[in-house]
Amino acid sequence: MLTQRPQHWNDFKGLAENRPIASFDSCLELVQAMKDAIEGHRDAYKAGVLHRDISISNILIFDECDKRRTKEVGVLIDFDNGISLKPDRLSVNDDQLSGTTPFVSAELLSRSPYFVKEVDLDLLDDEQLMSDPAGQPGISTSVILFHCWLHDLESFFWVLLWCCISRGGPGGMRRPELWSNTPAEKPLRESFRQLFEHATLDGMASFKWRLLNHQTYFRDMLHHTSTYCKILNPLLADFYKILRRAFKEGNHTSDLVNTVHDEVVAAFAKTEARSLALNKSSAPVGDSSNHVKREDASHYAPTNALSKAKIPRFPLSRGRAPAPCTPHRRQSSRKSAASPLPSPTDP
Fold this sequence. Notes:
Elements: E1 19-20, H1 27-46, E2 49-50, E3 59-61, H2 64-67, E4 74-76, E5 83-84, E6 91-92, H3 106-110, H4 126-130, E7 147-148, H5 149-166, E8 167-169, E9 173-174, H6 186-196, H7 201-213, H8 215-222, H9 233-249, H10 254-282, H11 294-297, E10 314-315, E11 328-329
Parallel strand pairs: 10-11
Antiparallel strand pairs: 1-3, 2-5, 3-4, 6-7, 8-9
């Protein structure tokens, strides 16, 4: 765990009063806040810190009063589960399930790699062969199955997908189809619950594994994003491709850390630029602001956030399956001082 926090973290003591990522006022704000959080994750990793708990509760959007003093829209918080890495380590092999379960990588939940990479058995020592969690000699899993930076990036992907499926409007508007009983919405409800609210860890891991391993499942999932967030489907597709390529390479060197982070940030920046251009072209004549007409570009129209109810988070127990619609997070060895934030599985 972290033994000392960087001094500049003290500048964000009032962050609990800002909005969680699920309360984004527009798709543009969602993209900007997540881009800032990913950049913060990259900077923390460069400083030798692995976050290990990327979730909707740990990405905040600055309120207007904070936006006036910083160029960032969002920030990554709650490093209580973070671990200080040694210079020669890119991952950690203790407490692999640390994090908020709906957003944890399926590799860590199932202890099975997304993509099998055959290696020469003569190059593996006895310890590597005996400790292979998949029970398949010849599969190199000595790095990828430890919690590493790529698993944190994957968690950002699940956060974005969760927002695009569960939110149907600005200000954190919940999508009514997720709790309706109409037969037409059953595929949407079943897919969302299997992906983020499955009653067992194995079930959730299996569904995530299929989604990231087989592109057909991912394309089907894109049909379930809300009409309001459908404009972010190209960003989801770009993010998905970057993750798949990184997991297939399976060589998590420091150079790859910078490359993959930069590719993800670039994908968000491209979407942000396209959104800002749409805002500008849709603004009334003589209006220099970035606000847009709702009838012209409703996906980016700013509006007041809805009520921000706060409920406590609960620890994840490795020994029993979490109940659906309940936030389940593994406890760290130190007490967290983070303020209660909205449930990650409450649509």
